[in-house]
Amino acid sequence: MSSATTKRPEACGHENCGSRRFHVGDDGFTYCDRGHQQSERGTVVAEDTGEFVIAGRKARRKDSEAESTTSRASGLSGPRAFEHYLLCLQLVLRKQLRWLIETKKLPEELETLVRDLWALRLQRLRTRVSYDSESETDTQSHYFSSQSEGETFASEASARNRKQNRTRIDGTPNVLDTLALCYMGTLLLREPVLVADIHRWVSDGELPYYHAAKNVPIGMRERLPPVYQELLEPTLLGKPEKLQNHVLEVLASLNTEFGIALPPINYPLILYRWMRALALPIEVFAATSRLARLLDIAFAFTLDAKLGTKNLVLRYPEVQLMAVLVVATKLLFPFDDNKRAAASATAMDALAMNWSAWTELQVSQTTDGDAGRPFRYEEALDYSQTDVLGASEHQLDQYMDWCEHNIASEDIRERGKAGRDADFRRILFGMFPVREDGTTRRDDPGGAKLSDDVEAEQLRTVQAALQARRIVEQPDPGQIHASGIGGSYRRIKTAGELEGPDKVFYERASELAGLSLDAMVKAVSQIERKLQKHEEKVRKGGED
User: Fold this and answer.
1) In this structure, are residues 371 and 359 in contact, taking their beta carbons and an 8 Å threshold?
2) Is the distance from CB of 175 to CB of 198 less than 8 angstroms?
3) N or C: which end of the chain has fewer CB atoms below 10 A?
4) Which pLDDT band, with edges at 50, 70 and 90, does 157 fall under?
5) pLDDT of residue 521
6) Whether pLDDT at 456 is above 50
7) Rounded to an integer, what distance in angstroms lies between the CA atom of residue 425 and that of residue 415?
8) pLDDT at 447
């Protein structure tokens, strides 16, 4: 006697719903008890005979490999589904641009520049789309319209193996590409926007990236096949180096195919920003500029660097600038306590830094900044029950704000069982709004001014702590440390050698440059090696 084993139905896979109860709606689609449409289950069509029909067992056909790029709800597949995905991604790009222009007050020309870069990006996708009777220019304008859905594709996707599907998806534009295009647009406008800025805005949930699909109307999202919907839900951005590498990849691709080259960064404005953030004396600005000219560093992207070379970390202009800044600071204001003398009262090394006072200011600024900033995406995902129990009221409010912005949804479905309660849901949302009218989630008009005031106060404190060095116009031959510039210069090869003020300085520098501490140490070491080779070359020339 054998016993039959009942197989439990698969759970609903929509946004971690987990429901296992399903029913067939009036439109023929299958819905879970929470109203989520199960497009992979297909439709049930029955002839209306006027009789009461008792439904029997239903067999669900397994998806084939070709159906991973097909939306059963809309019938979009192949080139038509790909075109619709590009329209959705383009809408996300426009939302990102409007945020940069309206919130960060960047020029309106940014949208025009990024539109042209986006059109060039689409040029690479000719093999995946068909233009029919449209001209190339009309098609590019149509893509950036985001007001209509093109009907230029007529072919349907044929059966493909899994490897071919994966290859096609790997070459598909994604949300990370839109961030790279936005940064390239700001660089073309010579705006002092850093890769670290883009990364911070994304991590703070201000610049659209995580849950980018929420910026697309639900009607457009539902027409996308699952494989394209997944691309609009990007994973963790990771460290800033990942975004820097992707910017370099996009730039190298555009340079190879269209000959596009980005100009150097606007280093005077960026250097000014960093000096205020690090509370450094004005002498460092002049020393950094002179050192860059001496070493012939243009602060531009290096596209011809080969993998495995020692200068690979110096491919990025922002890393080059920060590395030169660190070397210039170490030359003028060493971190040790050795007594040094200056050649004159007007020399660049006539003053000495009080690194103990500087370290206290930087540590306090970091602590206050971490307490006041909103939750970042990575931190919120790692928030555990223990963290919630030990959190303060302010931290809980921040965490709930993050959950509301990234997890909670007020989308109202119009079809299926959930569509029957659409009017009730609208009334319910109106009776219990998440926040009062007129308030915003993250707008802080006084935040930028407060940050400027803090930096100005720290700069005044550091300037007041500067000490004058002893003046020795003609030092004795046996006198040690007679010259301040370069005397007893300490080269650091690994991050483990850092301690005290130099460790705090390197950490702050790597944070501002969007680089890890190990990579920052390596970049500074390479600049020091360049300077050493230049000095040896000058000495050999003098001897000859």
Assistant:
1) no
2) no
3) N
4) very low
5) 94
6) yes
7) 13
8) 47
Please tell me the distance from the alpha carbon of residue 1 to that of residue 324, in angstroms, as a whole number.
82
The Cα 233–Cα 519 span in angstroms is 30
DSSP strands (E only) in 200-297: none
| Nearest CA among 519, 516, 524 for reference residue 491 | 524
Specify the amino acid at residue 232.
L
Name every residue whose Cβ is closer than 8 Å to that of residue 337 and which is 6 or more positions away in sequence. Answer: none
The pLDDT score that the predictor gives to residue 328 is 93
The reported pLDDT for the residue numbered 446 is 43
pLDDT in tens, 33-82: 777 777 666 655 444 455 544 555 555 544 444 445 555 455 577 788 88
Residues 6+ apart with CB under 8 A from 414: 422
Give residue limits of the domains in the chain. 22-56, 74-149+171-258, 267-369+448-543
Question: For residue 425, how far is the Cα from the chain centroid?
Answer: 35
Q: What is the pLDDT of residue 344?
A: 64
In the numeric block, which tokens belong to residue 67?
Answer: 């159906």
Q: What is the pLDDT of residues 411-436, one digit of tens each?
A: 555 555 555 566 766 676 676 666 54
3-state SS, one letter per residue, for 362-388: HHHHHHHHHHHCCCCHHHHHCCCHHHH
Q: Do 153 and 130 touch, CB atoms closer than 8 A?
A: yes
**Antiparallel, parallel or unpaired: β 467-468 and 341-342:** unpaired
Please give the structure tokens belonging to residue 471: 């003046």
3-state SS class at 211: strand
